[in-house]
Amino acid sequence: MLERTVPSQDLAAQARTGKLYSLTGVIIAVGLYSVIHVAARLIASLNLGEDDPLDAILAQTLQLGYLPGQPPLYDWAIWALGQLTGPGAFRFQLLKYSLLTASCAFIFLSARRVMKGDVFWAFLSVEALALIYQISWRFHEGFTHQVGAMCAVAASFWALLRLIERGRIADFALLGLCAGLGVLTEPIYWVFLAVLLISASLQPTIRAMLFRPGLILALAIMAAIAAPHYIWLAFSDAGLGAILPSVADPGAANYLGDALKGMRRAFTEPLMYLAPLIFILPIFFPGMVISIWREVRCLPNRNRQPDYEQLLLHMSFLAVAALLAGAVIFGIRSYPTHALMPLFLTSSIWLVAQARNAAPPAGQIDRFVIMAIGITIFAFFGRAANMYVQHPVCNICRWGIPYAELAEAMKGRGFTSGQIYVDGAELGGNLHRFFPDSRISLGDYRGYEPPLEEFPNLAGKSAIVWSDDQPVERIAVQMKKLDPGLRVSDLQRAETVTFPWSGWNLLAGETPNASWKLLIIE
Hints:
By secondary structure, the protein is mainly α.
């Protein structure tokens, strides 16, 4: 039987308890962190970031589904917030950081159970998220639906632990609710759900608590929540298979090479997602290496009591196995690191638990805390430099692009609402806040067209806008998919509008310009 003793933690835990190391403390700390980031972001620019513009276009209307391979829960939430706050950037920031706060709360609640009530180390599990690059940096501009999946994963794991300890019918219902919402966030949540249930079945005590008649209720609730969207998907042209990758042909010339690359990435990408946390923890807590070896050596666990650390370890191993299966069956050659965020989020709890099991002295813990806080502050100022200094600090300075000036130029030429055709999601999504009653269609995105019947009051005018560096012949091909009557000669009448970037641009030798082609059609 695996015995875990952390003798130095008794005094440490007693010395470090208090209101800060509580659910309320987590919500206040993450809420303050969120307010600071949101305020800095909105003061810097009201432009939408990397992934938000596409969702602004999708959420013009409320539909059962938008893109066949992308569940719609995040877009539904953006649409609902738009009814309350308007079509601007604030609704995206509000949703993203609310989900972050909720995710951290569920991580704390789960870690507190995993670590047998140790609230200090549970709090450190939340702080440790600041040492994951995808969360501490890329999160702020790069993610949309993945954030919803991250929250669903954290909530589902917490709901499972609650069910194991209490076993009430309400706990099964709660797990079904979390799972129902989860399968509406990202297709990878299905992988997480399978990993969660299989891992739970590997321990007899957990299996006995989970696989009871109440599980039928949980599955029924999940199905009831998810049914409207998946029925829509089943009757769409893509069908239910849209949530799966295309199965590779084993006879294809490049199949073996792709599969081998995918198998390698099945091991490396989880490490890259958890970096640098997974490398920093052993530096500050070298004793955790022994704890990790003890954990792996004692697989599988046959204890009479649930072992949550072993549950998390099983989940991590099975998640890697799922990625290996994806490489072999579907020929997936690469896994985007950010896409794995939901699948390996709970692995961070296990890593922190191994640091705790090493029974580090207070000095080691203090140095880790100071370092984590320092990185959090450094990351904020680095992001602020991106937003305020802009070029040459940032690589793609979306914050300074003068969409407001472009919208004013369109209004000055008589366009107030109507049909807007654009050549890219970033342009269309950013124009939406200036023309919320217009129907915005993407020439370069054939996966979705806003239903025309949802815009009964369109004015007679249409606007076609595209980047000045795109050849008119290419734009004509795109726009004909939206309006078959358009000709190249029509587009050649478009005028060029040019505006300097907004923002501080403190280090730029000269302020860059943004140019578009604009055509207003009566």
